[in-house]
Design brief:
The structure is a single chain. The chain is mostly helical. About 75% of the residues lie in helices and about 0% in strands. The protein contains 19 helices and no strands. The protein has helices at about 1-40, 45-50, 50-85, 90-115, 135-145, 150-170, 175-195, 195-210, 215-245, 250-255, 260-270, 275-285, 290-300, 305-320, 330-340, 350-365, 370-405, 410-415, 425-430. The longest helix has about 40 residues, at about 1-40. The radius of gyration is 22 Å and the shape is globular.
Length: about 450
Amino acid sequence: MTSQRGESAVAAKGGRKGLDKSHYLYIAVILAVVLGAVVGLLFPEVGKSLKPLGDGFIKLIKMMIAPVIFCTIVLGIGSIAKAATVGKVGGLALGYFVAMSTFALAIGLVVGNLIHPGEGLKLTPYDPNKKAATDSTADFLLGIIPGDIPVLPTLLAAILVGFALQKMGKEGAPILKAIGHGQRLVFRILIMIMWLAPVGAFGAIAAVVGATGAQAIFSMFTLMLAFYITCALFIVVILGTLLRVVAGVNIFRLMKYLAREYLLIFSTSSSEAALPRLIAKMEHLGVSKPVVGVTVPTGYSFNLDGTAIYLTMASLFVANAMGTPLDLGAQISLLIFMIIASKGAAGVTGAGLATLAAGLQAHKPELLGGVGMIVGIDRFMSEARALTNFTGNAVATVLIGTWVKEIDNGQVERVLSGSEPFDEQTMIAHGSDEETVPEGGPREKATV
């Protein structure tokens, strides 16, 4: 456990170092969205002319869809095989994660069908064969960006490669490691692209507001509000009920115990920074080390409840905004695709957008033009995604520990009552001599 606590100390320090960069991007996106909305409202024609900025950013995201999906699915299948080998805990955890992720995706579809976000905007569908009405310079710059690779063939190839590497056993380990290094490179490029998010958001929002007026702003606000309410209800009602019935623990007491981690996640918009701390705190809570060691890292890969809700609600928003709502059959096929593809929504800025674009491209490529609106509000929803993912994994750890009878209920009560607080200084002291975790390494997935 020493190494994990060492990682905690490093992550805490690293989180603070990266905080300013994250906030600069966050602030820049907010300012870009506001400025784009103002330009679209006051100067509609100018706003429409800025559409190539949003289109260029979307093309860059599309360029990364295939590499993200391939690397994460191949590595994800390898993680499933590894988790399954630990026996009852791994199998139970994976079964629970698949069930909860599917349930969260379904909730997103239900809420999206109830509120119909984006309805009435009637944006122009994306046609990859139709040249935009832009000047030659814009055409030239957009033409530099590579075309996208079909998603479904990539997904099939990734699944086949993943299972083939499983069959190879130890011989496949070097190849899996090489793909892990490739994933680092892909995510590094994705991070670089996301620093252009303010430019893309400015152009996309200005163009949309210029074409539709204030209705676009109202629709985006409706989606954000509905998403936050859905995530809050999912945590309190669904996860809270499960936790109370199975383990007899109050969800609010557990959330109070994890308050410092929530602040860290809210500051960085990613649950990734709190991963080592969650491992340390769950062990201190009374869950056995083997259960924590399997459940938490695997959950960061496969238990992304907040991301699942976001993907389905955002997909319905885009479909309605483009004036081509998805029928029941298309929604079910989208849900099945997202069950698999959401495992690729890694803890790197922009991976969630790439996964969303992948789902839309696989089902209705003409909907990709609406992703520009999501770029503008994606950062506003990232905190809710990260907090929901983190809470889901904390609850899962307690539930799995209870089911396999590897939890000290007396310790749980003492910790949550405050009589045995978590010792931050001890954790830092244990980690003072540990090796620093390499930045950008292949990590368990979290949210964006």
